[in-house]
What we know:
The complex is a heterodimer of chains A (708) and B (65).
Chain A: H1 14-47, H2 53-62, H3 68-95, H4 100-119, H5 123-140, H6 150-174, H7 181-201, H8 209-236, H9 238-242, H10 244-273, H11 277-294, H12 303-327, H13 332-363, H14 383-407, H15 412-425, H16 432-457, H17 464-482, H18 488-502, H19 512-535, H20 543-562, H21 568-586, H22 592-620, H23 628-643, H24 647-666, H25 672-685, H26 701-705
Helix pairs in contact in A: 1-2, 1-6, 1-17, 2-6, 2-18, 3-4, 3-5, 3-6, 3-8, 4-5, 4-14, 4-15, 5-6, 5-15, 7-8, 7-11, 8-10, 8-21, 10-11, 10-13, 10-22, 11-12, 11-13, 12-13, 13-25, 14-15, 14-19, 15-19, 16-17, 16-18, 16-19, 17-18, 20-21, 20-22, 20-23, 21-22, 22-25, 23-24, 24-25
Chain B: E1 4-7, E2 10-13, H1 14-35, H2 45-61
Antiparallel strand pairs in B: 1-2
Amino acid sequence: xSAANLSTSAPVTRQVVAETLREEASVWLFVxxxxxxxxxxxxxxxxxxxxxxxxxxxxxIIVANRQAGMVLAKxxxxxxxxxxxxxxxxxxxxxxxxxxxxxxxxxxxxxxLCAGGATLYRNFKSYAFVLGGYTAAIVAIPVIENPPGVFDxxxxxxxxxxxxxxxxxxxxxxxxxxxxxxxxxxxxxxxxANFVAFVRDSTGGAIPRESMEKxxxxxVRTAVSLEDLRSSVIFEDAEARARSNHLRLFNQxxxxxxxxxxxxxxxxxxxxxxRRDTAANLLIRLYAPxxxxxxxxxxxxxxxxVLLPRLAAARDTMRGNxxxxxxxxxxxxxxxxxxxxxxxxxxxxxxxHDYVDAAATLQTPRVIAGSAERVRFDRGNDFLGAGIxxxxxxxxxxxxxxxxxxxxxxxxxxxxxxxxxFAGLFATTPNPTRVTWMVMLGYFSGMVAGFVCEFxxxxxxDGYGLLVVGVAPFLAVGLVMMMTQRFASHGLGWAxxxxxxxxxxxxxxxxxxxxxxxxxxxxxxxxxxxxxxVVIPPAIGSAWLRRRQLARLRGQVALAAEAPLPGLRHxxxxxxxxxxxxxxxQTEPGSADSRALIAWALAVHETGRALIELRHDMARxxxxxxxxxxxxxxxxxxxxxxxxxxxxxxxxxRDAVATAIASVGEHDGVAHLLEHLHLVRMALLDGESVLAxxxxxxxxxxxxxHAS
Amino acid sequence: MPREIALxxxxxxxxxxxxxxxxxxxxxxDGLAGRFGLYRLVWHPPLFRLAVFVCVFGALAxxxx
Lengths: 708, 65
């Protein structure tokens, strides 16, 4: 593995060697930590006389990870899943102790439901669901001949798993821990520095649409990855947990500010394209103080606090300038464009100020008393995808169960267990067929290694110390493979197959016939899981699901127009970001799908935010009864159009917005609504946006000019 | 105190129950320590946490033996 270690001394290559060594050191540290956890668990389990020490040992492999926070997070959810699964197993066995058909049906349904639930969550929460499913099988199937034994089986399983989790948690947290907190801190700092730098550099004026799209993608990614990191780090670090709410608020404000920022730049771009240069240039001039304010050296630690007073000053300057700049305009069109832009700009500055404020709070060394406003990161889930996963897993289980019942195969339980485990574990990966095949290959070679180890090495040895020496080299191969990019899945398969087939017990039995029968059953179980992925392909990554996700994304405009207002801003932003990042993760960058998605995402973001702001303003003050129906009509037609985009719907929406604008003009004291409506209107008329496909073919540049 | 605790008429090893209880207690203490920044005063927080857990679990286990 470390062939590079051999080449030494040459001063030119010293740095290369040092780098390689550092990388290698972290790999070997992982291997050593996992081995320590593995054998310590085995020793304790044997001392405590648990029935299956190998389960506890396998647990340490399943949760093994380089980062302590990941291990703890995965352990937490594994514990939850195991408890739920064991409870379900006791319930199912108690309900059908003598009806094997009903028993298998109930068990398959439970496993299927858990697999479906897993697709609704990200990260380790989904893992908890998977575990809930297969733990039930692990607890219930071995006692199928002896139903009263189910409770003992459940307690044994829980004790073993908790023991394994405890040991690997302690080992990974105490022995040279590698902290994820630092990654989180770095990500948050980078997000902040990048966004501030991007805003500062773009005060010069128009940004080309392409770099805008790229920036949007980047913002979405960082927002989602920050949320993912946060949800793991809170297990590792009590201080991070105390700041968790602040961090969420920070992320939400980031999303809000980046949306407003994009709307602003789309507006300026549109004005420039429509040759409304006067208004566009005035807006850019109004914008200039912001660039100066952000032009402070960003250092670690103090950065955010330094920016706050500067931003406040810039906001005051801009408020003051707005009047003077406005006075230089006389054309009604220009005035209206300028008002729309200035309102948007001020909204953006307010949001940027809030964002920087949240960053400053995060950077203070002490946790500030009085926790931050409670916000949630909502996810955009698809229940149909979950339904498919449920059906697939249930069917796989039923088919295997039927085969087991019909053939009276003594090893049927092994096959069924393995199929459950793998069908669940890989249901949420984008390409489960391939991953399952790779793991299967690794699993198979792991079992071959297990055969060699058990019958040629272990038979020669006596005592736990020698067992460690005999087993460690075989296991280390798999662990090292887990740490390489290419062979990660093979390695996981190897380590699991090896530990599972070895089935270390207090009194080890050496029975080659049983060993081989068991191995065949396990491979068949794995194969059944792989086949099930081929027969009922997972929805994740398919064009069908992408279309559904796109439809959901468009439906977000309806959410913005119709959902109850409290907390809507956060809900809209976070579901949007989650949906976009899901689809982005499943499409090739630069493909037609991905471009269409981003185009829609930009349109939805802009229009949705404007509608939410409009509704907030509508709710704030009493509206004249003659005006309200027009506004509501505009909201309604817009949401219908986005839900089901077509040319007639587009015309309806466009006319409804125009009517609303006209009727706002007829009333006094409601001018503040006009800005939002103009924004929506201009987004609708943008010839470069995705909506262009639904426009009547007449050139529309004139319409942008005479937009009311 | 009996070494096995009856939960709904089923005997569960007492240590297991206390183990879960100790974990919950540790979670609580850990949250408090993080909230008030007490881990800044400690050299190796995870080791300290482990020590606290051993104390808590040991103290609870004394009820059994």
